[in-house]
Amino acid sequence: MLRIGGLEIENPLLLAPMEDVTSLPFRLIAKRIGRPGLMFTEFVSAMAARFNRLAALRKMRVSDQERPLGIQIFGGDPESMAEAACLAEEAGADLVDINMGCWVPKVCRTGAGASLLKDPDMAVQIVRGVVRAVRVPVTVKVRAGWDYDLFAAPELARRFVAEGAAMITLHARFARQGFDGTADWTLIEAMRKAVSVPLVGNGDVRTADDASRMMRETGCDGVMVGRVAISNPWALAEIRAGVMGEATPRPPSLDERVSTALEHLRLAIDHEREGWEPRGEHTNPELQACRSLRGQLPLYVKGAPGAAALRARLSSSSSYSEAEELLLGFLQDSASQTCAISA
Ligand SMILES: Cc1cc2nc3c(=O)[nH]c(=O)nc-3n(C[C@H](O)[C@H](O)[C@H](O)COP(=O)(O)O)c2cc1C
Known about the structure:
TIM Barrel; 11 strands; alpha/beta
């Protein structure tokens, strides 16, 4: 059990915040399959929260089925971040997470994300402003530092904790690295010595063995998993079982993968229908959901024979029934091929 401020987390597996991925439909799938102890929304811009409230609220939608949930926000000044944190709390966040890890220029140019690692005083003011603005726990997700030779995170994290941060997540790469190279878990071990609040390790965990090794070698209290869950939410179940000392769940059948892809699409259509923008493309929620899952749906059957051809056809589908026909047809073809081989 992990305790973050007043919040109790049932297991130490955390689903990472991922832009355009960890929207409500994906989180509901991830929760059903992998039961992570805590999940996060994709990051929500504090400026959007101020100037495009509807879009921000859409990203902040929370379902009771997925709790506990952290809403992640990013921004470059304490005032807008405090406002965004209040909006997140009103929207139902169980905790508010501050992004100080995003390295992409469009975010860093605004003084937000990982660029705050270069401006410690502003970073601390933002944490202070957000902690004062909300009652729920406030957590911070950082990278090791901006430049390779400057491991700024431990000193920063100490200051964040002094301001009331209830948990620190370290993606064990420097901002300049983007996603290059491998995550250096010794940085997590070094961070462990800096903070007494829960520390979550992140970077390159793909299997249950990776997760157990990260916890053992670094002393971190939780493991955050990102990319592997995008193409394979069942990896979450395997990792969770591993860190909880439970039996490894069996891998999903092709049947299960196809039905989960369809479940995801149905959830995405509902999400579009319940959106707050009943105009433009949102007047056709099925089309919008098919478009938003163009990259993701084919991943459910990745590696199966014929998956590449299916991917191309799925990418141009524009309704649930069209996608369903393609996926069920694919399943039927696979079953008849298997019968032919085993006959
Ligand atoms: C598509 C994508 C979107 C991401 N969006 C966010 C984000 O919104 N907020 C954030 O803190 N990190 C974001 N990240 C970084 C992940 O949370 C995580 O730190 C990183 O992927 C390393 O973990 P992994 O090796 O398990 O993937 C994103 C990563 C990916 C691949």
